[in-house]
Design a protein that fits this description.
Blueprint (H helix, E strand, L loop, with lengths): L1 E5 L8 H6 L2 E10 L3 E2 L3 H10 L3 E7 L7 H12 L10 E3 L10 H23 L6 E4 L1 H8 L10 E4 L19 E8 L9 E6 L9 H12 L16 H13 L10 H9 L1
Parallel strand pairs: 1-2, 2-4, 4-5, 5-6, 6-7, 7-8
Antiparallel strand pairs: 1-9, 2-3, 8-9
Helix pairs in contact: 3-4
Length: 270
């Protein structure tokens, strides 16, 4: 399943045309630092939903020049209330503020931002939803230092020109959720300027690890025997597949035992 991401510098977006071109999901920038609010966000946010796009909002993180908690509060204030069917919020980690932030500062700031946003979503919706972390392989390795602290957060990895992205050691293996495989692309249907192209990972029996473990736990929490995935161990066995199929059937989703973006979002909000 494919999607795009844009910010106000990418020009106008016709979300009906984006949808008709086969894009299922999209992310738009909401905020950057404390003071920058994307001028197109409010319009994008409502129109995406009206056109059946699975929508997500991201925050461009400045680890040194702005207070992380204030950044989180401005992000939540700008987005408003997350609603069932929305993708989790995204923390875009790709800047060290021109060399002013070392790994320790970045990691500490990330933890503060993530905790504040998770708390706000729980208070808003009653749901425990972890934000997505967006980063690039070399920035995460060379600047952030591959910390193990964030393994339980879904990964959106920016790695251009490859079929399969390089996954930082923090997550390992194939444990990426979204792959941004091309950036600043022109002629995207519905986008007047440039945009980025993304692919959602199809979570199936070839995978194992933290993504699978989270899905298993969410199925287990529904407390229905038909949704029982067996042990919450991160291994995608037949029992987990059958539980996913049962969940998909109950929610009128394609019942194939593969967790695409639609099934994943349904699980988040169930």
């Amino acid at each position: 399943m494919y999607g795009i991401d844009v910010y106000d510098g990418d020009g106008r977006v016709d979300w009906a045309a984006v949808k008709n071109s086969g894009k299922t999901f999209a992310f738009v920038r909401a905020t950057e630092g404390v003071s920058i609010k994307d001028t197109a966000f409010a319009r994008h946010w409502s129109v995406m939903k009206m056109n059946g796009i699975i929508r997500g909002a991201y925050h461009f993180f400045h680890p040194k020049t702005s207070d992380p908690v204030q950044q989180a509060k401005e992000f939540i204030k700008t987005v408003g209330k997350f609603e069932p069917g929305d993708l989790p919020p995204v923390l875009d980690v790709e800047s060290d503020d021109n060399g002013r932030a070392d790994a320790t500062t970045i990691i500490k700031g990330m933890k503060l931002w993530l905790a504040e946003v998770e708390k706000a979503i729980l208070e808003q919706t009653g749901k425990k939803i972890k934000p997505i972390i967006y980063t690039a392989p070399y920035f995460w390795k060379d600047t952030v230092g591959n910390p193990p602290d964030f393994v339980d957060y879904p990964l959106w990895i920016a790695h251009y020109g490859v079929e399969t992205p390089q996954v930082p050691a923090t997550w390992g293996g194939k444990n990426w959720l979204i792959h941004q495989y091309a950036g600043d692309v022109s002629n995207i249907p519905g986008v007047s300027g440039d945009g980025d192209l993304n692919r959602f990972n199809t979570i199936q029996q070839t995978l194992s690890g933290s993504l699978i473990k989270d899905i298993q736990q969410r199925l287990k929490n529904l407390n229905k025997p038909e949704y029982d995935p067996g042990n919450v161990d991160g291994g995608f066995g037949l029992k987990t597949k059958n539980a996913i199929i049962a969940f998909q059937k109950a929610h009128n989703l394609q019942a194939d035992g593969i967790v695409g973006v639609k099934t994943w979002v349904h699980l988040l909000w169930s």
